[in-house]
Amino acid sequence: MEEIRAFSEEHVQDAANLYLKAGRGQSRPAPRALEDAFRESFLSNPWVSPEILSLVYIEKGKLVGFLGVIPRPMEFKGRPIRVATVTTWLVDRELHRGLAGMKLLHHLLMGPQDFSYVDGASNEASSVYTALGARVSYLYSFNWVRVLHPFQTARGLFDRVGGILPRLKGVSGLVTAPMDFLLSKVPLGMLQRPKSTYSSKLASPAELLECIHEGRGREALRPAYAMPAFGWLMSQAGKGSGHQGFRMKIVHSQDGARCGWFVYYANPGRAAYVLQIGSHRRRQFSEVLLALFQDAWDQGASAVKGQAIPQFLTTLTEQHCLFRQPYACVIGHSRDPEIMNAFMTTDVVLSRLDAGSWLRFSSEDWT
User: What string of pLDDT tens digits covers the 367 residues of the chain?
Assistant: First the structure.
């Protein structure tokens, strides 16, 4: 007997166990904190809807598949639409060799939402999405990186590879900071401390939301943020040991006017990760970006990484950013051809705050 059910409280423990097994390769009971994270993210988020639900796949009475979905409100050409963001997609391959994953995804895509969205699907997962009618936005699927401290960045790469390189970690730790300091004195812009003519200031969620609303552009598809849900989102983004260095900042021009914002994880000694960056005017984006780099440098980040912003690819390149496709795709699905056309032509405002990058699952060790 196989069936797809709505995720509920009775499935929390089994879904958390499945996450450790299928997502981490660990066959052990999930700790209470992980169960609480599943409960809070998928059953208690402020956008919970009886129509757009996370799903489980039950086979012979056992949970063998899970599809984590968080509804998000957005706007398309000024009208409200319902969006399903896919955040977690798991199947227990030891217990199930069939098509549970595809069936879960098909069930979701046939739901009542106006648009379905996922950020970070693997190439293997992307083939399933596209087989079911979804489409990949290749421009949004690129990431950019701005190296701030080259030696510290290289040390981080050594730490992730095998062989003799990790054994040099102790030695490299003694030389990276002095070498990066000397490099910063070289009269070459990309090696020096970034400096913006604008200033940035830490902000509360309410202040940040007000700034975002002031910078509203003309793109057809955009998130619809409102308090108190936005406050919950910010609290979740900064929660957990893996989300240290969470910073929300508003950027001010020389005359003190608010002109942009950025939200990111500073990660001292490692790469900083951007969840969202925006400016009120296109011409202001370059200085807002520099303000981000300046803040990340001051926080000790080795580099800054973010999702490609198609409208500002030239600006990112001018600010010494490198681009790469990390085998993780941004995918959309809608039965409305106008929505899909906007998505594919990048007439949208989407960031990692609007997908699942702020969730705690991948960043915690759950020991």
Answer: 789 999 999 999 999 999 999 988 888 999 999 999 999 999 999 999 999 999 999 999 999 999 999 999 999 999 999 999 999 999 998 888 889 999 999 999 999 999 999 998 888 889 999 999 999 998 888 899 999 987 676 665 555 555 444 554 554 555 566 655 555 555 556 667 899 999 999 999 999 999 999 988 889 999 999 999 999 999 999 987 677 899 999 999 999 999 999 999 998 889 999 999 999 999 999 999 999 999 999 999 999 999 999 999 999 999 999 998 777 789 999 999 999 999 999 899 999 999 888 998 877 888 7
Alpha carbons 94 and 26: distance in angstroms, whole number: 13
Question: What residues pair up with 39 in beta bridges, in sequence order?
Answer: none
Domains contained in the chain, CATH given: 2-136 (3.40.630.30), 142-148+194-324 (3.40.630.30), 151-188 (no CATH)
Rounded-to-integer distance, Cα 118 and Cα 207, Å: 28
CA nearest neighbour of 251 among 213, 201, 295, 301? 201
Place of tokens 């007439």: 347
Strand-pairing partners, residue 25, are none
How many Cα atoms occupy the beta-carbon half-sphere of 355 within 13 Å? 22
**Dmax of the chain from CA atoms?**
69
> What letter would DSSP give residue 283?
G
Helices (H), the chain: 12-18, 24, 32-42, 100-109, 123-131, 150-159, 169-184, 205-214, 229-237, 285-298, 313-318, 337-344
Residues 6+ apart with CB under 8 A from 160: none
pTM: 0.88
Task: Provide the sign of the torsion angle of the four alpha carbons 163, 165, 171, 173, taken in this order.
Answer: negative
Tokens of 348: 């949208």
Residue in 348, 354, 277 with CA at minimum distance from that of residue 77:
348
SS3 241: helix
Is residue 121 within 8 Å of residue 140, measured between CB atoms? no
